[in-house]
Structures are given as C-alpha cells and as structure tokens.
Amino acid sequence: MSEYTPIEILLIEDDPGDVLLTREAFDDHKLRNRLVVFGDGREALCYLQRRAPYADATPPDLILLDLNLPGLDGRELLAALAADPLLARIPVVVLTNSLAERDILRSRALRVTDYVAKPVDFYRLIEVVQRVEQFALSVVREP
User: Fold this and answer.
1) Which residues share a beta bridge with 36?
2) CATH code for the domain in which residue 53 is found
3) Integer Rg of the chain from CA
4) What is the pTM of this model?
5) Residue 32 belongs to some domain of the structure
6) Which of 38, 37, 51 is nearest to 87 (CA)?
7) Tell me: the pLDDT tens digits for 9-55?
8) Nearest Cα residue to 87 out of 135, 46, 128
9) Which runs of E-coded beta strand occur in 1-143?
C-alpha cells in the first residue's frame, strides 16, 4: 500500500454554499488534503504571491478556481498566474457556471489543467472531487 501525502489545495470561491459543498465532499471522501479558501481573487493573489499578511503561506499544490469572483475575477487571476513562472507551475482546475466557449478557450490558453462546470447537486460535486483526488495523487512535490 503506497503512502499518501496530503497536499495543499487552494479553493478560490465566493459562494459560501459552493464552499460548504466542497468541504462536505472532501469530508465524505475522507480526503486529508489541506483546503485553504478565499472568496476574493485579489486576496487569493496576495496569498499566492506571499505578500502581507501571507508572507508565511504554504504554496498550494493545486488551485480550484471559480471564474466569477469579486475584486480580481478568475480570468484576471489566471492571467496573473500564467505571467509568473513560479505560479504558472501550479495545476489549476477551473470550477465555474460559465459554459461560454470563450471562457473555456481562454482558460485552456492560460494552461489550465482542467475546466469543469460547477456541479448542480451534491453527487455531481462528488464526481468533481474524485477528479480532484486524482490530481492530488499525481502531484509531485519538490524536495
């Protein structure tokens, strides 16, 4: 049996209901990953760039990103991630209500790992979490 090392997952989501569903799905699947949540794109970028008050923040191994955020929206955040060589290496899964082709194409152009329409119910969310778990198991940490 291989040993599983929990990873750091950053959820950037402004809808408290979606945050709660994500936490419940992680609990239900007994994922031991650490889930850090931000509801604002600007604050999440400060965390990712380790600016005050997040100078001691642990860089995430995976980002779950909603595209429609207050402050700095997910599209702008993706562009900022892609422009930073260190942040560009972090896998990003876009979770959104937007099925607009331009959002999908832009996300793919910014090297998004996956693009998933937000689940409409708990069981759909569990499917998404199972996909996230596959990402978690495939992330290779640097020493």
Assistant:
1) 10
2) 3.40.50.2300
3) 14
4) 0.80
5) yes
6) 51
7) 899 999 998 888 888 877 777 667 788 999 999 999 999 999 999 99
8) 46
9) 8-12, 34-38, 62-65, 92-96, 114-117
